[in-house]
Amino acid sequence: MSTWIKENCTSFIHLFCIKVLKTGRIPQHVAFIMDGNRRFARKKNVNTTAGHTKGFEKLSEVLKWCLDLGIPEVTAYAFSIENFKRSKEEVDSLMALAREKFERLIDEIDSINEWGVRIHIAGRMSLLPEDLRATLAKAVLATRKNNKLHLNIAYAYTGRDEISRAASHIVDGVNNNEISPDDIDEDLVSQAMDFGEPELLIRTSGEVRLSDFMLWQVSNTVLYFSEVLWPEFTIWNFLIAIIHFQRHAPPLQEDKEKTPIQIQFLKNLELKKTREWEHILGY
Asked: How far apart (Å, rounded) are the C-alpha atoms in residues 272 and 263?
């Protein structure tokens, strides 16, 4: 049994409600700001690490709900660059938790591949400990051929930093004569980002701000703010968010056709990112 996808967390009545909701429009990409782990720890009078561990366990449930609903892409805001300003004890515990969970993922890779989960991790990787970067690289490369559920994890990330890195990639493309300035448009910038545009963004804990998450992508996204703390987020809270999406979703937009030059640039960019992960492992 995988610790990343929690099985047996949906009852018959849950599955019945999911089936009803699937008669309507289901978002194809859902993003989560998983807020409230520390407040949950204080509420339960446990240490902060226990709160973050409960938060990860909740993510494993949410991934199963998304699979049941047929949602093919999930993005989770796991660790902001701003979080490095927290106490050394808390930052070290978060790094240790990430190390433990991704090592377990690698140990459970057969199960992960059976579920068809593809891991994509993005952020300022140079800020993370070297051994953690190596573990993340193994997870990304080991799951890169899976296509049932794309799990994007924002780690050492902010939206503004993502925009700056995308701009850097585009500048490199111009300098390397892969594209010309005339090839640069909104669609190319969007494609150069770490993450695509979510149709639904959910934030827990009652906060009603984006906290520098996916700033470029959410101009057309349905936002849903839940009062509950992330570890206490239930399937009913999630299904209510889906209903909220179905009530407020904008019309689907057609993708703009890319030029052959843009297509090749984006292929080169994807290859570059893969090589960066391989370089971390010394390939």
From this structure: 14
> Taking the model in full, what pTM does it have?
0.95
Element (H, E) at 171: helix 159-175
Q: How many CB atoms lie within 10 A of CB 250?
A: 9
Residue 149 known to be catalytic: yes
Give the span between the Cα atoms of 7 and 203, in whole angstroms: 24
- Going by the DSSP 8-state scheme, the letter that residue 201 receives in this structure is E
Q: Is 271 an active-site residue?
A: no
Which of 69, 149, 229, 266 does the annotation list as catalytic? 149
Average confidence (pLDDT) over 190-209: 96
Closest by Cα among 76, 72, 40, 38 to 59: 76
CB-count exposure of residue 84 (10 Å: 0-12, 13-18, 19+): middle
Dig out the tokens for 173 from the structure. Answer: 């493309």
Q: Is 194 a catalytic residue?
A: no
Residues 91-141 have pLDDT tens digits of 999 999 999 999 999 999 999 999 999 999 999 999 999 999 999 999 999
Q: Read off the pLDDT of residues 56-82 as tens digits, 9 standing for 90 and up.
A: 999 999 999 999 999 999 999 999 999
C-alpha distance across the termini of the chain, in Å: 31
| Share of the chain residues as helix, strand and coil, in percent rounded to the nearest 5 | 55, 15, 30
